[in-house]
Structures are given as structure tokens and as C-alpha cells.
């Protein structure tokens, strides 16, 4: 979240190889781009039965990361 000024969108997939859920992030603050606002939610609660999370990042320039999967 602290690098959100360089990120257009983050998508995740819970127990799925396809990131199908967008994560909401606060807008970029050009005066303090690395600061995380006090009302931001930088963590995501997932069900305890979650076995993996897939992640894909779309950057401001339109490039897209490869999908990474993290297993519990």
C-alpha cells in the first residue's frame, strides 16, 4: 500500500489461481507518497481455511505483473 502511487490496481484470488477480486486502496498523496493514511486498511482478513492467495498487480504505466501464488 505504501507504493500505491505506482500501482493502478491490485487483484487477489483466495484459493484460486485467478486473481478475481480488486483490493481498494486510498488515492496517492503526492506530498507524502509513501505514507499510509490512518483510515486505510493495509491488511486483509481471510478465512482461516484459506490455503493460498494469488496476486496480480497492474502498474500506473499499464504493465501487469505475472500472477504470484502464495501458499499457507
Number of helices: 0
SSE order, as H and E? EEEE
Shape: flat
* Portion of residues within helices: under 10%
Class of secondary structure makeup: mainly beta
Give the end-to-end Cα distance, rounded to a whole number of Å: 21 Å
Portion in beta strands:
25-35%
Strand order of the largest sheet: 2-1-3-4
**Please, what is the average pLDDT?**
94
Overview of this protein structure:
The protein has 72 residues and is mainly β. The protein has a domain at 1-27 and 50-72. The protein is 0% helix and 32% strand. It has no helices and 4 strands. The protein has a 4-stranded antiparallel sheet with strand order 2-1-3-4, with no helix packed on it. Strand 3 and strand 4 form a beta hairpin. The model has no long low-confidence stretch (mean pLDDT 94).
What's the topology here?
Blueprint: E1 7-14, E2 21-23, E3 52-59, E4 68-71
Question: Keywords for this structure?
Answer:
single chain; 72 residues; mainly beta
Q: In a few lines, what is going on in this structure?
A:
With 72 residues, this protein is mainly β.
Amino acid at each position: 500500500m505504501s507504493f500505491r502511487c505506482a500501482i493502478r490496481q491490485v487483484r487477489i484470488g483466495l484459493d484460486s489461481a485467478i486473481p478475481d477480486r480488486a483490493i481498494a486502496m486510498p488515492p496517492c498523496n503526492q506530498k507524502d507518497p509513501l505514507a499510509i493514511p490512518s483510515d486505510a486498511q493495509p491488511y486483509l482478513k481471510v478465512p482461516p481455511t484459506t490455503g493460498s492467495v494469488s496476486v496480480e498487480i497492474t502498474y500506473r504505466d499499464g504493465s501487469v505483473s505475472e500472477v504470484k501464488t502464495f501458499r499457507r
